[in-house]
Design brief:
There is one protein chain. By secondary structure, the protein is α+β, with helices and mostly antiparallel strands. Helices cover 33% and strands 21% of the residues. The protein contains seven helices and eight strands, in the order H-H-E-E-E-H-H-H-E-E-H-H-E-E-E. The protein has helices spanning 8-24, 28-39, 84-88, 91-102, 109-116, 137-144, 163-177; strands at 44-47, 60-67, 71-78, 122-126, 132-135, 184-188, 195-202, 215-222. A hairpin with a 6-residue loop joins strand 6 and strand 7.
């Protein structure tokens, strides 16, 4: 029996999950769970060499998505499912982007825009010197507001407007790039209650060429009520 497809709004949510997975390098099981709501409970995604959990039924179909020079992934769906959905979701593209970022390579801007522009919060890719390699529209908005960051464009450092905040930002970036911290999060306080939840994580190998992706930064607007956390030391 064909699984009943979910509404278009759910498909839009799946695209957002794909963007999240690209940024974090993880979350593919969340994507698989979202796809399962569309295609059936035996849907799964796994990289080459990793086994999918056993299916509850025998009539499943496995697709192999090959990303040139970046790896092979298996996608399993129930037989008779709406496999046309796979063509509407840029799954292969998302896997390729995630692998490129993990390898330190900067994907093309059109590829990044396709998956990261819809995200409702700022997403930025930085090199080893903190220079901006990519910012989605939400990121451009924050950078152009002049409230929290100095206006910057491609190839320029990401610099907070406030000196003390800038020192803290540099310390957090050093934790990720130099000290091997898996991630760091903190609240960045700004004027008029414009606070941001900052999340940094490393990307790419420790030794990478100039202009390679080395850090992923997300900035999410939060209310002033959370500003008490702003003085906390960035966590490893």
């Amino acid at each position: 029996m064909t699984h009943t497809p979910c509404p278009a709004g759910h498909r839009a949510a799946l695209l957002l999950r794909l963007g999240e997975a690209v940024l974090e390098g993880t979350g593919w099981q969340a994507v698989a769970k979202g796809l399962a709501a569309e295609l059936g409970p035996d849907t799964g995604i796994a990289p080459a060499g990793e086994r999918l959990p056993p299916a509850s039924r025998g009539d499943t179909v496995a697709f192999v998505v090959e990303v040139p020079d970046l790896g092979t992934w298996t996608i399993r769906v129930p037989a008779g499912a709406d496999t046309g959905l796979l063509a509407t979701l840029p799954l292969g593209e998302a896997l390729g982007l995630a692998t490129r970022i993990a390898g330190g390579r900067t994907p093309s801007r059109p590829d990044l825009e396709h998956l990261l522009d819809p995200l409702p919060y700022a997403a930025l890719l930085l090199d080893a010197r903190g220079r901006i390699l990519f910012a989605n529209p939400a990121g451009d908005d924050i950078l152009s507001s002049r409230r929290l960051f100095r206006p910057a464009a491609f190839g320029q450092p990401l610099r907070p407007a406030d000196r003390r905040t800038g020192e803290r930002f540099d310390a957090a970036l050093a934790l990720v790039l130099l000290d091997g911290a898996p991630e760091t999060r903190w609240i960045m306080a700004g004027p008029e209650g414009t606070h941001l939840a900052v999340h940094m994580r490393p990307a790419g190998p420790p030794i990478a060429p100039i202009w390679a992706v080395r850090a992923v930064v997300t900035l999410r607007a939060i209310g002033a009520a959370a500003s008490a956390e702003a003085s906390a030391t960035p966590a490893r």
